[in-house]
Amino acid sequence: MKKVLSPIYQAFWHPLVEGLENIPTDGPAIIASNHLSALDAVFLAVASDRRITFLAKSEYFTTPGLKGMAGKMFVAATGQIAVDRGNRRKANAALQAGAGVLSRGDLLAIFPEGTRSPDGRLYRGKHGVARLALETGVPVIPVGLIGTFQVLPMDRRLPRAGRVQMRFGQPLTFPRMTDGRTGLAQRAATEQIMKSIQELSGQRQADIYAERFKASLGLVSR
C-alpha cells in the first residue's frame, strides 16, 4: 500500500514532515492527531516508517460504491479497528482492541476529536486517547496536520493538489493508573494532548465537540 501511495503523495501534495524522529523506532506509542480530511490517515500512514493501526469509524467498513471500496481497501491494508461511535459498549470494545495493539508493541493512531473538523478549527478532544495512555503507560505522540483541510474538506468529493505539512511533537507521558477511566485524570490528560496538537497545527480552537457543532448545523457527523 505504501509503495503504491508514496509516488502519488509526493507528486500531488509535496509533504513537509517534521519531527518524525519523535516516533519511537520500536515499542508502542499512541499517535494523536487533529482531523481535517478523509485523507488524514493516508498521509500519516505514508509518512511513518512503521506500520500504524488506526481506530476508524465503522462506516468505513460498510459504505457502498467507489468511495466505500477505496475505504475498505485502505482499512484492510492498514488493519484498522472499527469504532461504532453511536454505541458506547462497542466503542469501549474498540478501545480494548487498541490496547491489544499497544500490548504487541505496535503504533496506534487515534483522532481525539472523533470526527473531521467541518471548518478547519480544532475541536474538543474526547477521552479515549487519555484513557489508553493512563491505563497502559504508553507515550502519546501529538501531531499537527496542516493543509489537509484545503486538500479535501468535508464538502468536496475529490482532493485538490496542494502542500501538506505534518508536525510530530515530543512524546507526552502520563503516570500509569490502574483505572485510566478516572474522570479528573482523563480530563487533565486530554487537555494537555489537545494543547500540544494546537501548538503544532496552529489552529483556532472551538470549545465544543465537533459532533455537537455538526449536529447544530444539521450536518451528518463523518
TrEMBL record:
Keyword annotations of the record: Acyltransferase, Transferase
GO biological process: phosphatidic acid biosynthetic process
A cellular-component GO term for this protein: plasma membrane
Ranges for domain Phospholipid/glycerol acyltransferase: 29-148
Example of a GO MF term: 1-acylglycerol-3-phosphate O-acyltransferase activity
Pfam families: Acyltransferase
InterPro entries linked: Plipid/glycerol_acylTrfase
Name used for this protein in its record: 1-acyl-sn-glycerol-3-phosphate acyltransferase
Source organism: Candidatus Frankia alpina
